[in-house]
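User: For my dataset I need records formatted as: sequence, then structure tokens, nothing else. Please produce one.
Assistant:
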Amino acid sequence: MAQSEQNAEAMQRQIDALRAELARMQETIDAQQAERAPRDASSDDVSTRELAKENSAILETMRSTQINGQLEFGSVFNDWDDRDKETAGDMDFGKFNLGVTGGTGKFNYSFQYRFYDGYDFLQHGWLGYDLTEDDSLKLGLVQAPFGNMDYGYLGWYGTLPYIAGFNDNQNAGLKWDHSQGAWDTSLAFFKSDQLGDGNEHYGANPVGSGAQGNSEENQLAGRVAYTFGQGTNATTEINLSAKGGQLYNTQTGDSGDSWQAALGLSGQYGSWSTRLQATTYEYNAENPAESVSGISDDVIQIGAFGFNYLIPAEAEMYSASLAYSMDVDLGPVDNLYFYNDFSMIDPSGDYSAINGGFGDQRDPMLNDLGMKVTAGPYYAWFDIVTNKNGLNYFGSPVDDDWHTSFQTHVGLTF
């Protein structure tokens, strides 16, 4: 990781040096042109103008290209873990992100690659084209237009709709975005849910390589939003979205279908922020026999970040978030940010996050109460994450009791 960071820094230094050299060349050409008296165009003048035009295009491309990244370390104490009780938790490598954004004229692009402990993946990567001032196209691994954007929550850990793969999910396909006045509209066609059938990716999706073997293919998605009070210090966005299509089973070779819909509210009122969302969904899968997969037809196996888990095949989800941002002058600290994210799942039938989904447990609930401290490029998140039957996400017990994870994440952005 240190080597990756050094490479990124070296790349940025080379880009800065190239920018400076091109700028000096442009200054020299401008000075030569200013010294010449007006006269008929000669071959030298044409060559000079062509060189200036070429340098100008290169400079514009270099100016619009930005390299950004993030390095983060994390410390976790889980109240259900005996080792954490003996050692007071542990500190580990969190992640390293490296991204590039840029464009020329109507063309633009963006990608981000992430490195975690033991695996890595492309978080997003797309090529874009601006059709008009209000319309744009993106092709590649893009964020699905669904629910409250961009994340659907306000803290660090996330909500159950995010963990279940509905908010902030990246799919592979083509997306059209239209923005005009207070209206925002997006339509998308996704050839596949991710790049591959595994679980090493950002945003949860059915896992084609898993025991149950489902994969979302040929999906259509749409979202429309209207913002009240646009351009003021108090805005309220109401959004409605839907997504659905083919659910192909790699084990049986048969196709079912899936659909999801959400109604969301995203508010910004001065230093206060809020997010509300209601989501309903259904997976109608053509699974192999339960005796073969070992997984109940009442659940769907999904995965992300190298981890597989089970959610109800049909359910409603509800989430509510509130946050307050406060600028301060406390030495190097310039901002304090307080937040709380709460979410729950109401399964339509029997559901268990363990034992292959066989059984019936109480409604899963998750709450993240926390604070973020920012000092220039440095930051620290402090979270108290409590859950009951929280999808067995990263090992939390599923026993109808509440459990707590104390988490700290420290890092820098560049």
